[in-house]
Here is the input.
Amino acid sequence: MTDTTETRNATRRRFLTAAGAAGATALAGCTGGGDIEDIEESAEGAGGEGGETETTTEGDEEDADAITITQGNLVATLDPQNHGETPTTNVLRQAYETLVFRDADGRLVGQLATDWERVEDGRADLTLREGVQFHSGTELTASDAAYSINRVVDDDVDIVSARKDQLPGIDEATADDEAGVVTIESGAVNPTIFSDLATTGNVLEKAWVAENDIAQAVNGTGAYELAEYEEDVSITFERFDGYWGEEPDVREVTFNAASEVSSRVSALLAGETDLTVNVPPNEVPRIEEQDGTDITAVPSTRIIFAPMRYDVEPFSSPEFRQALNYAVDLDSIIDNVLDGFGDPTSQATLEGYTGYNDDIEPYPHDPERAEELVEESGHAGVEITLETPVGRYLRDVEIAETVAGFIDDLDNVSCSVQQREFGALVQEIVDGKLETRPKFHLIGFGNPTFDAARNILPYLVSDGAWMHWADDRVDELMAQAGEEGDPEKRDALLQEANAIIHEQAPWVFLNRQYSVYGVSDRIEWDARRDERILVKEMALA
Here is the structure.
């Protein structure tokens, strides 16, 4: 272990200990907030016998169980099946639910389904929970659940979703409303079917979708229903009285957004918000030292990377792509930009996931080798631009500027940074057209399925929804993995794909992100590794 690694690990341990985490590899987060100070005064304390007793108005009572959450971005749409953004997911998850879900420890649990099983290869049955209502008051049926799946996977369904990649391998879903059973047919084994349903299988009311603009309205089965929505400003949910599960502590939640980190932190310290995301490490002491605020943190399932489009020069050259990886000092970024709160990556999969290849090491920092590879590529003297979102990921702009700086330090490449609004950048990535996607950009991808396929399929196969690089052998391996029922054989296929991806370097491999939240002492909440923010899991202090 190098001195640099020892320093980074020690710094990270100090941070996670201060934040209350059990350790850097804990699956669950740490508890944020502490005991709220009791500020009520008795009649005697307020002025002795005969003194006036403080009273609480109805408005104060309402404010006491209402909270605010501030993200870097708000929502791209209110359609839960037509986006790929975690901020949008975190807002809409308050209202929409899936058949199965993952708890904070990553275990599959029932949500709208009580039982699920593989009946045979290519077929799975899920039994619906009884007595579930949509916010419209209509009872959930198997037909609604089947429609919600078909809307994603079947191009012939009305108002089709553009996100077929969310439920790969599924051919169709059928319903038995009398039995309350949804049957899902796949062409093969489909080894990740339940994980995929838990991640993106939101259930909608079929009749309601046909009659409403689902990009501007909400009707789910979740613990909260839409109360007010001001586009690009805020969205408020209120507790749904007809919810099938336990009544949550929080009565009302408002989500707003501030792309600037300083604005999010200032809002927390001023008592204007109760939870804020992506707190930079240098702000941690200020939040911890102020009465009424604390930090909760956890290593996330998100990787940060910089994809390169293989259909355009100079990124069409494997040698040039490898050169950029050698140019970047990843340890320096983790130590100096992230203050140790990150882990280096070497492939399209995090350690501990199915398909992670233990034999692959991160690219070392070797500027001389980088310059040699640039010469071999035939692109010496080229000028490139790295596009980056602002305020979406932990220190995203600073990471991008540092990456560009290392590349620009090469004698034969010039690199600059272009800051982009996150929504506009994502729209270019997901519009279905390779030729309009950014040529070189920084992005993050969270994978709560703990399986390599979820990272590789959208980006790195020929028919991927956000494809920017492809390889015939990787296509073949991923097709085989999608039909392989033996876990060990499937793991080997995914590991081989990761080895090719590392060698061909379609990304500048960067860091695993840590989720760092600032939390008001008004709420008690455990940060989740999968970055989900579920208000129903919060308790009022």
